[in-house]
Design brief:
Structural class: alpha/beta
Number of domains: 2
CATH superfamily of the largest domain: Alkaline Phosphatase, subunit A
Subunit structure: Homodimer.
GO molecular function: arylsulfatase activity; metal ion binding; N-acetylgalactosamine-6-sulfatase activity
Helix content: 10-25%
Keywords: Calcium, Disulfide bond, Glycoprotein, Hydrolase, Lysosome, Metal-binding, Signal
CATH class of the largest domain: Alpha Beta
Number of helices: 11
CATH architecture of the largest domain: 3-Layer(aba) Sandwich
Strand content: 15-25%
Strand order of the largest sheet: 9-8-7-6-12-3-13-14-4-15
Protein name: N-acetylgalactosamine-6-sulfatase
Catalytic activity: Hydrolysis of the 6-sulfate groups of the N-acetyl-D-galactosamine 6-sulfate units of chondroitin sulfate and of the D-galactose 6-sulfate units of keratan sulfate
Bound molecules: 2-acetamido-2-deoxy-beta-D-glucopyranose
Radius of gyration: 22 Å
Length: 508
């Protein structure tokens, strides 16, 4: 019997049951960076499953996230649009990053079209497992934005909190809140033990089995967060790494990915399943080494628009379609997964709005290189742009002197004079240009007087000018915090603090 759904791509490829799985690793203060995978040269080779996934699929060396922070990057993945368009930014201060803590008032606007919403038109069932991070008030619930199922949390697993001033972060099964971190879903901060990755793995395997049995195409967004501080691993992985607790968390994620891929093979649907692995921002060097990863040779980390903040490990896997062992230099972005998925499902991206993601299938299946720029934003400011191998910084900033003097350093041990600045430096009339091929660490800006600089900027200026004149920013969603919107089940005698509406900054 033929499965009821088929999909075709713009390339004329036809397959039954085109399904996709996105594996999105996490981080606010400890995400999985480029230097954490054996296949990228991490010396202790502790990611055998991801390395194998790459050897059976395609490794992307020039793949980016849309923002160096978690919430905006997730909003971009699911909308195919830059955070400045979909509203995941703040106008409270110039070039400030922002995210959705549990007292944020905003979230994903109804006017945004999310990938699972669109995939429904092709009969897809979508599930998110893990962290949502696009707002936690009822109107922002993932099941109101196209997902059919959810197991996970609207936020990071920060805590434990005292439940008086601040409740612990809730977890949901679909519409229903089923418990809270630290209370019902334990994380032992002393030992680092938690069973959450195992629970998320089982959820994924069960969902895949169910969809296979009902012959219904699916989209699974597996958004695990064990590598986000406070990092955790289950007992069998504790102490298994040579890199401390962070390494243990990476090992458990790696092991789980191996199990998911084997499950697809066992069910006989691996050739119908497009799987993509990447991360939401670069490793948080402020938490390294115990709670944070490595960005290899790249400059700085999470929060910054240097390569260490936004260049991500990325692997595409689709046996029988993607040539094994491929390596792509295509400039890619998490927003491309939106457009690529629609193409896999035989759908067109919405035409009534600007979509920043491109369809990567020609790059993945035919080895074509598609010309496209990468924009690096912090909040509402375009900080840098990459065109080909050249990257031009229009603004440079790591963090403020005030933060830096408190010991918060996004670029530990990496002071590049005039580049990793602690004041926001404007270079809009004469951007700093780096050649990322010769100088991936962004240490040696090209001389302004050189022909190479002139040639690079001629090309880049046109692209930036066009980007700026056509930019229509969305309504900023991350400006306001209010403790009254926190998800609470406290007895009424335990009143939350009075409603306080404050400006949202980096941390509300
Ligand atoms: C993890 O699960 C095991 C087996 O059910 C249990 O013994 C252990 O207490 C759990 N650990 C945590 C931190 O919840
Ligand atoms: C980085 O180096 C420059 C030049 O040597 C110096 O002026 C600046 O204070 C240094 N920054 C930090 C954070 O040490």
């Amino acid at each position: 019997m033929l499965p009821p759904f088929s999909c075709s791509t713009a390339l004329g490829f036809k397959a039954f049951l085109c399904i996709s799985i996105y594996i999105y690793t996490d981080g606010l203060t400890g995400s999985m960076g480029w230097g954490d995978l054996g296949v990228f040269g991490e010396p202790s080779k502790e990611t055998p499953n991801l390395d194998q996934m790459a050897s059976e699929g395609m490794l992307f060396l020039d793949f980016y996230t849309a923002n160096p922070l978690c919430s905006p990057s997730r909003a971009a993945l699911l909308t195919g649009r830059l955070p400045v368009r979909n509203g995941f930014y703040t106008t409270n201060a110039h070039a400030r990053n922002a995210y959705t803590p549990q007292d944020i008032v905003g979230g994903i606007p109804d006017s945004e079209l999310l990938l699972p919403e669109l995939l429904k038109k092709a009969g897809y069932i979508s599930k998110i497992i893990g962290k949502w991070h696009l707002g936690h008030r009822p109107q922002f619930h993932p099941l109101n934005h196209g997902f059919d199922e959810w197991f996970g949390s609207p936020n990071c697993h920060f805590g434990p909190f005292d439940n008086r001033a601040l409740p612990n972060i809730p977890l949901y099964r679909d519409w229903e809140m089923i418990g809270r971190y630290y209370e019902d879903f334990k994380i032992d901060l002393k030992t680092g033990e938690a069973n959450l990755t195992q629970i998320y793995l089982q959820e994924a395997l069960d969902f895949i089995s169910k969809q296979q049995a009902s012959q219904q195409p699916f989209f699974l967004y597996w958004a695990i967060d064990a590598t986000h501080a406070p990092v955790y691993a289950s007992k069998q992985f504790l102490g298994s790494s040579q890199r401390g607790l962070y390494g243990d968390a990476v090992r458990e994620i790696d092991d789980s990915i191996g199990k998911i891929l084997k499950h697809l093979q066992k069910l006989g649907i691996s050739e119908n399943t497009f799987v993509f692995f990447t991360s939401d921002n670069g490793a948080a060097l402020i938490s390294a080494p115990e709670q944070g990863g490595s960005n290899g040779r790249f400059l700085c980390g999470k929060q910054t628009t240097f390569e260490g903040g936004m260049r991500e490990p990325a692997i595409a896997w689709w046996p029988g379609h993607i040539p094994a062992g491929g390596v792509s230099h295509q400039l890619g972005n998490v927003m491309d997964l939106f457009t690529t998925s629609l193409s896999l499902a035989g759908l067109q991206p919405p035409s009534d709005r600007q979509i920043d993601g491109i369809n990567l299938l020609p790059a993945i299946l035919q080895g074509k290189l598609i010309d496209r720029p990468i924009f690096y934003y912090r909040g509402n400011e375009m900080m840098a742009v990459r065109v080909g191998l050249y990257k031009a910084h229009y603004w440079t900033w790591s963090n403020s002197w005030e933060e830096y003097s408190k010991g918060i350093d996004f670029c530990p041990g990496q002071n590049v004079s005039g580049v990793t600045t602690h004041t926001q430096e404007e270079h809009t009339t004469l951007p700093l240009v780096f050649h990322l091929g010769r100088d991936p660490g962004e240490k040696y800006p090209l001389s302004f007087a050189s022909n190479e600089y002139q040639r690079a900027m001629e090309q880049i200026s046109v692209i930036v000018q066009q980007h700026k004149v056509t930019m229509v920013p969305g309504e900023p969603q991350l400006n306001v915090c209010d403790k009254a919107v926190m998800v609470s089940t406290l007895p009424s005698a335990w009143l939350l603090p009075e409603t306080f509406t404050g400006k949202a900054f980096l941390l509300c």
